[in-house]
Amino acid sequence: MISMTLADIAQTMQGTLVLGSTGSTADTVVSGLTDTDSRLITPGDIFVAKPGEFTDGHLFIPAAVENGAAVVIVDHEVETTVPQIVVDDTVVAMGRLATEVVARVRAKGNLTVVGITGSNGKTTTKNLVASMCERVGPTVFPRDSFNNEVGTPITMLKITEDTRYLVLELGASGKGHIKRMTDMVRPDIAAVLMIGLAHAGEFGGIETTVESKRELIESLGPDGIAILNLDDPRVMSMASAAPGEIITFGHSPEANVRVSDITSSIEGTEFELHTPSGDAHVRFKVLGEHHAMNAAAATAIALTLGFELELIVSSLESVIRAEHWRMELMGGNGVTVINDAYNASPDSMAAALKTLRQVAGPENRTIAVLGEMAELGEYAGEEQDRLALLIVRLGIDQLVVVGDGARRLHISAINEGSWDGESKFYSTPDEAYDYLSSLLCAGDIVLVKSSNSAKLRFLGDRLGEAYA
Prior knowledge:
The chain is α/β, with parallel strands linked by helices. It contains 16 helices and 22 strands. The strands form four sheets. Strands 9-10-8-11-12-13-14-15-16 form a nine-stranded mixed β-sheet, with helices on both faces. Helix 10 (290-304) packs antiparallel against helix 11 (309-318). The radius of gyration is 24 Å and the shape is globular. The mean pLDDT is 92.
């Protein structure tokens, strides 16, 4: 973070500064990072005591202080030796501080802010853009999927006076969520990747999803640039909200940046990249042809930032994986595990299953280990039925369904023709692991896919380590 005095931080947060017994004064300067996780606090950092669903951050103030917190942000005065700033709402106060920090750095004229949203592909695209930006100048971007009203200000507060690029992944599960974050920082470039059924249950329907994602485009200033997926009509409906230039990406020949001739193998994805700056053949090590569209979106953003095509292609080809637990290749001794169980929606499930089929040769047995797609609400049953039909039509050799929330997928697969043992159901990951341990042999390719809440990513890790 930029350097600020305790008094300045308290004023920005609209809070009351209470000095502790450490000798700090109102003029003491703080420049450490900010976090709500006491385990991540290091000397000089700011600890925000955030009330949680299952616990309260105020309980972890002693741990944060022991780890070296310079100041704690609280919603009521507590007993502690370090300075504390008492505010009405610790998350809102953190957002106020982030807004001020970005405004001060932006006033120096060197900071460009990129915002990325969409139902799928946000984290991968964010990582691709960040890797390109890092080749040009100091870059700040979220760890993992820190894309909500807590993770976004934590990321923003990492910037310093030298930061050139701030790349933000903006998630939402309802109207107003993205606006809340863009009120903290209006992006210079805003990209919408695609609109699907991810979180549709929470949104209340696909049209509400569109309205929510549109908030990112509506946040642009008159000089802001919108990056839109030309292949997705719902995304292109947002063009009317863009105040200025629009750059498109996609498969369509009319897209400003497009990809074609995509081929997938277990080694990665190759495609032709077509841009206003020229064309290039890209050997992308990230598994799955759907990631070519994420590469196209990242390229459109990078070109808008003024990056050369050579740098863009070199950066794309240097990326080894999208992210931990996202189409991550694991295993060994003839057994390949594709661990893609960090998130799951109907679109990403279908894309991962198609990739499993595409990368398998005639000598490979394909095994899909699938868990629940969360947050689909009333759409869950219908989407599990659709997925079951796709699995049968793709000819996946073995389906292993894990967890009661996904049981309908197993039943639907049987109804679609997997009635001779091609589909198995287990209530727990441990039961599934025991079955898979007796099943797997050299030549097998295993896809593990579920929403985060199903925790199959740990089953994927376990399988990968077992055959490494």
